[in-house]
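Retro notes (design track)

What went well: tokenization of the new backbones is finally stable.
What didn't: we kept losing track of which sequence belonged to which structure.
Fix going forward: every design gets posted as structure first, then sequence, in one message. First example under the new rule, 211 residues:
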């Protein structure tokens, strides 16, 4: 698929999300402001990026029933999921290390535009990896691990989101954990996509049918 088509899909998804979640986006401003004031932090100055994060948080709340971090997917462990609810318990460590939380939603007040730009580049590098595509199948395994959380970056759901901007027609995603297959299914339900999954030996194969 051409780059313009992938970009068109991305912007279409952004505006659809903005319209669908406009009330939740307003609500998010309340808890975000409360948190930044309490911690002496600021939010990402890039308005479009910030809005995208709020849309992804709202989507995660719809999919998982919890405001799970927009950079990670739900796990099959309740305690880990609680720790991933935004603002997550990992944020203080991330901010200490990079100046921003992992997703670049929150950052230190003294960050310059250049610092935010560097963090944007960091996250783009982490998430815009070349997908492991063989024919019509994407293998989501063997990606880097976030050492602090011990979680895939990008996880299968984020690889799937990227795949939707690149793939036409029917395609398969190979995932290691059943929870990832369920998460992709939940995203498909949200986006009204036809999907199913099955176990195949030690992996799960999710088949997505796009019209
Ligand atoms: S990394 Fe940032 S955006 Fe993600 S859950 Fe933590 S505080 Fe929220």
């Amino acid at each position: 698929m051409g780059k313009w088509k992938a970009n068109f899909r991305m912007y279409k998804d952004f505006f659809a999300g903005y319209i669908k979640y406009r009330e939740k986006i307003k609500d998010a401003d309340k808890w975000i402001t409360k948190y930044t004031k309490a911690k002496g932090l600021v939010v990402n100055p890039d308005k479009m990026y910030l809005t995208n994060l709020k849309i992804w948080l709202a989507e995660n709340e719809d999919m998982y029933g919890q405001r799970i971090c927009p950079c990670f997917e739900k796990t099959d462990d309740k305690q880990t999921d609680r720790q991933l609810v935004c603002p997550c318990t990992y944020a203080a460590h991330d901010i200490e290390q990079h100046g921003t939380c992992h997703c670049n939603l929150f950052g230190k007040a003294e960050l310059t535009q250049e610092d935010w730009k560097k963090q944007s580049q960091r996250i783009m590098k982490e998430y815009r990896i070349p997908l492991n595509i063989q024919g019509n199948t994407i293998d989501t395994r063997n990606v880097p691990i976030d050492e602090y959380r011990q979680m895939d970056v990008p996880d299968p759901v984020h690889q799937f989101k990227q795949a939707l901007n690149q793939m036409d027609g029917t395609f398969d995603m190979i995932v290691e954990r059943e929870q990832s297959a369920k998460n992709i299914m939940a995203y498909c339900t949200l986006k009204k996509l036809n999907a199913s999954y099955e176990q195949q030996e030690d992996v799960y194969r999710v088949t997505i049918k796009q019209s």
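Added context from the reviewer: The mean pLDDT is 94.
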